[in-house]
Amino acid sequence: MSRIILHQWEISPFCLKVRKILQYKQLVYVTKNYNGLLALRVSKLSKSAKLPMLKYEGDWIQDSSDIAEFLERRHPQPALFPSDPQQQAQALLWEDWADESLYWYEVYFRFMDQRALQLSIPMLCADRPRFEAWIIGSLAPIIYRQQLRAQGIGRLTRDRVETKFFQHLDRIEVVLSQQPWLASHELTIADIAVAAQLEEILRTSALKNRILAYPKLADWLTRINYSNPV
């Protein structure tokens, strides 16, 4: 049995982020999915009832950023964090922006769009009894829409959300026109964190063609997956 087990939701950008880190570091791991009503069991893993959760031999680590730091200590090569202090600070700022800001666009485009929601529910309930899709399909939009309103983005019009999102992509395109990666001359946690959020948007959103119309960004996503296949 693998000494590394990733407890995850399959379409969580944070779980995708951890899978990318594990693959980038060429670590053998297995996943345990909590699709459908199995999500109720997550509370037994931690009081916060959140995933990802990584079991590494006898250690349990929660939160994608904490997992990244833990794996960097255990497996420092290839490095996730630049050795240069300025580049490292930039990489961590990008990671935090992806986790705390870009994430809400991923949630918005997945749960405030009926077409994306119809694609997402079967993924949320993969390999589970059919009736669970009805339950999750009824509850998930309510829960996430409440969270979006509390966060603020859920109070904006769809046009305003899209405008703000593509302004972010404009800025990423500018950065990538000047350098191959977001924070350094090599792939770092910045690239993995941002890409994980964008790839989950691409997975279910009708905005896919508009996003991939950015040439530098599209090339960057391809290079990340070449260096770090999912």
From TrEMBL:
It comes from the Bacteria. InterPro entries: Glutathione-S-Trfase_C-like (IPR010987), Glutathione-S-Trfase_C_sf (IPR036282), Glutathione_S-Trfase (IPR040079), Glutathione_S-Trfase_N (IPR004045), Mito_Protein_Transport_Metaxin (IPR050931), Thioredoxin-like_fold (IPR012336), Thioredoxin-like_sf (IPR036249). Residues 2-79 form the GST N-terminal domain. CDD domains: GST_C_family. Residues 84-230 form the GST C-terminal domain. Signal peptide: none annotated. This is Glutathione S-transferase family protein. It comes from Trichocoleus desertorum GB2-A4.
